[in-house]
Amino acid sequence: MESSEAKDNAAIQGLGPYRRFRETLILSSVHDLPRNTTGMRMTRAEAAEPEPVLVQTSLDGVTTLRLNRPSKFNALSLDLLRALQLALDSIAADPQARCVVIEGAGKAFCAGHDLGEMRQTSSLEYYKDLFSSCSRVMQSVVNLPVPVIARVHGIATAAGCQLVASCDIAIASQSARFAVSGINVGLFCSTPAVALSRNVSAKHAFNMLVTGDFIDAQTAVSTGLINQAVEDADLDAAVAAKVRAIVNKDPQAVRLGKAMFYAQRLMPLSDAYAFACDVMARNMMQPDTIEAVDAFVAKRSPILSFRAPYSASK
Q: Fewest Cβ atoms closer than 10 Å to its Cβ: which of 67, 71, 244, 286?
């Protein structure tokens, strides 16, 4: 007798590319529920608490990391930071990885650090460890060999705004709001300032940092904090389109390109050009690149070693 999981998976195959992607993410969270002593899957109410602080799902090289503390607006507890670090380290070591989407469960993307947890342990060593752990996560996002997309809804504040700024691409709903609001409780957002100031102009960044004021999604676009703001109902479709555009490209070229992009930004102009020339020359020597260029010149379809999971033929 065909299992419910097999039936669900068969049904998914009839959906369009992104519908298939999102529905698999939803169903995977159901199929991964533990079983009771009769072998039946438990309901969510029956499943052991607490739920994981991070939910990781993957399909066709696309990994979604869902911050899963909705009752705390996905505040970055030390446990959540550690889970994120483990997930990012695992993705970095996976040669099949193509793209990562970071999103939040519930009503918000991420409300920054968990201030309640922070006050439970009042020591300089603890705070240094906490902020160092968070900084390592943000750097791991930047250093990940594949593109990372922030899918933002609700609020992204303090370290949550830092996470948005650390991602390579950020797409938000029109109703999303952003702030680095630590100053409102006497804590200047020093570590978020590092990521923020590398995405928006100095004056825009400092204004946000010293006032703690919220900005809306359109302002976030105009300042360069995010790439795109879309209607709330269109957020999944916009993220899907960006994922599709990335994973249909040559994965080695994308990896080379991301590493080159961030490395050259730290170099003097002449050094950056010398470095970029070397990377581009090596890229041109790759078999798939040679085949794609030859096919373009000959006006034929290329025969490539990688699979485009969201091609028009699927």
A: 71
How far apart are the C-alpha atoms of 43 and 172, rounded to whole Å? 32
DSSP state of 84: H
Q: What pLDDT digit, counting tens, does each position of 289-305 carry?
A: 999 999 999 999 999 98
Report the amino acid identity of residue 283: N
How distant is the alpha carbon of residue 21 from its chain centre? 15
One-letter amino acid at 84 equals: L
Instruction: Give the whole-angstrom CA distance, residue 158 versus residue 194.
Output: 12
d(CA 169, CA 147): 8
Q: How crowded is residue 111: how many other Cβ atoms within 10 Å of its Cβ?
A: 26
Separation of alpha carbons 98 and 64, rounded Å? 11
| Residue 140 in tokens | 């791991």
Which pLDDT belongs to residue 309? 72
CB contact burial 265-291 (16+ within 10 A = b; e otherwise):
eeeeeeeeeeeeeebeeebeeeebbee
Beta bridge partners of 177: 155, 216
- 215 CB-contact burial (10 Å; exposed 0-12 / middle 13-18 / buried 19+): buried
CA atoms within 13 A on the CB side of 89: 8
Phi, psi of 186 (to 5 degrees): 80, 15
Cα–Cα distance measured from residue 47 to residue 138, given in angstroms and rounded to the nearest whole number: 32
Q: Is-contact 32 69, C-beta < 8 A?
A: no
pTM, two decimals, is: 0.84
Structure tokens belonging to residue 121: 């342990």
Q: Dihedrals φ, ψ of 236, to 5°?
A: -60, -40
Cα separation, 67 vs 74, whole angstroms: 6
